[in-house]
Amino acid sequence: MNASDFxxxxxxxxxxxxxxxxxxxxRRTLRMVLEGExxxxxxxxxxxxxxxxxVHVDPLDxxxxxxxVRLPGMSGLELxxxxxxxxxxxxxxxxxxxxxxxxxxxxxxxxxxAFDFFEKPxxxxxxxVSVRNALRQAxxxxxxxxxxxxxxxxxxxxxxxxxxxxxxxxxxxxTSARVLITGESGTGKELIARAIHASSDRFQRPFxxxxxxxxxRELIESELFGHERxxxxxxxxxxxxxxxxxxxxxxxxxxxxxxxxxxxxxxxxVLQEGEMMRVGGRDIVTVDVRVLASTHRNLSELVAQGxxxxxxxxxxxxxxxxxxxxxxRPDDIPALxxxxxxxxxxxxxxxxRRIDDDALAALTAYRWPGNxxxxxxxxxxxxxxxxxHLTRTDxxxxxxxxxxxxxxxLDTSQLEQLLSGDLxxxxxxxxxxxxxxxxxxxxxxxxxxxxxxxxxxxxxxxxLHRKMKLLDIARGK
Length: 477
Prior knowledge:
- It is built from 20 helices and 14 strands.
- It has 477 residues and is an alpha/beta fold.
- The protein has 4 domains: 3-145, Rossmann fold (3-Layer(aba) Sandwich), CATH 3.40.50.2300; 159-324, Rossmann fold, CATH 3.40.50.300; 327-408, Helicase, Ruva Protein, domain 3; 413-470, Arc Repressor Mutant, subunit A, CATH 1.10.10.60.
- The strands form 4 sheets. It has a 5-stranded parallel beta sheet with strand order 2-1-3-4-5, with helices on both faces.
- Helix 3 (76-87) links the parallel strand 3 and strand 4 (94-98).
- Helix 5 packs antiparallel against helix 7 and helix 14 crosses helix 19 (450-457).
- It is globular.
C-alpha cells in the first residue's frame, strides 16, 4: 500500500488514531494517508507500548486504534484479550489488520469487541471507510458517556436500595422494553426514566415528558396525539402531538394513573400498533417511540376498581422498577444534603457552605414524607437563610419537631423498671442495661432501621452493629 493509492476523501476526518505495527513503512504510510484526511496520528511499534498508551498514559486522547495482529512479543489479539480481562473490554474502537490472519482469529477478535478486521495489503477504500466509521462510533460513545454522566450525576446515592435500582436501569436501558417506574412523589422517578433513555440507543433522540396529572382532561388527547386545523375552537393550524415529537426517541407518561380511560384506549393502540390519529384527523400517523410510564399510585388497585385498563397495565408493566422512599435509604441522605448545599450555593451565587455533623444527623433522622424533593427544598432554604456554615440551629423547627416526637414516643418501660429495682447493681451493669433498653426502644421506634437509628444516636452504623452484638440486641429477642 502506498500513500498515493488513497485519493482525498470528500469530507475531512477529525480525531486521533493510534497505529500499532512493527513495520515502520506501514506506520509511515498510514500516517501520511490519515493525516492527509485531517486525522492526528500516533504510533506504537509493539502491543506492550500500545497497552500502556491505551490504558495508562493517554487513554482519553486516542479515539481509534489500528492494530496489527502479528506483533513481536504480545500479539494484537493478546492485547485485545488483556484489555478485555483487565478493563472489561476496549474503551475505544480497535481495527485489526493482518497479512496472515485466519478466520478463527477474526471470529475471536470480534467476540472480544474488535470494531473491524481485514487483511493486508490494505485496500484504500476499505481502510478509510473503516476509520471513518470507527471515529463516528467513538464520537457517539463520547456523547453517550457525557449524557450518562450528566444524568447519573443527578442520581445521588450508593445505598443498597439505590444500587439495585441503578443496576436495573443499566440492564433495561440497553433494551427496548417498556418500563413502569413506581414510587412515592418526590423520589426521583423522572431521573430514573432519563437514565434509562441515556443508556439506550435512542439517547441522541428526543426525551419527552408528559405530566398526565397536570394537563386538563379536555386537552390531554390533543397534547398527546396532536390535532388538525379546525378540530375544535382555537385549533387554527395543524399541531403535532407529543408522541410525534418523541418519534424515534422516548416518551415518559408521568403519573399515568391519573389518565382517563378514554385516552388510555388510544395510548394502548400506539403501544400495540405504533399508530395514532390526530384529533379531527383521518390519516393514520405511524410513530416509533419507546414508552416509559411512572406513577405514585397502585395501578393494580386501580385496575381492580375499573379505573385503569388491565390490558394497558400489562403492556406498560413489562419491567417494573420501584424507586425507594428516602426514609428507606437514610444512608444516602448525607451525600444528598452535601450535593444540595453545593448546588444551592452555585445557584444563588453564595460562597460555599459546609454543614455540621449535628445538622446532618438531624436531617438524616427526619422521615421526609416529601422525599428527595422536600429535602432539596429544605436544604436550599437553609443555605439561603444562613450566614456561614450550616448548624443544627439552621434546621427548620418542623424537621427537628418530627425527631422530638419520635423520641417522645419511645417505650421507656424497661428504663422505669430498672430504676425502680435493685439499686445495688454495679455501675457497668446499670449502664449496659440503660444502653440496651434505649437502643432497643430507638430501633423499635424506627422499624429496626439500623442506619436511621445510628444517625439518631450519633453513631456510625458499624459502631451500632458492634453495640447490638455486645449487648445481645436482636429483633424478636
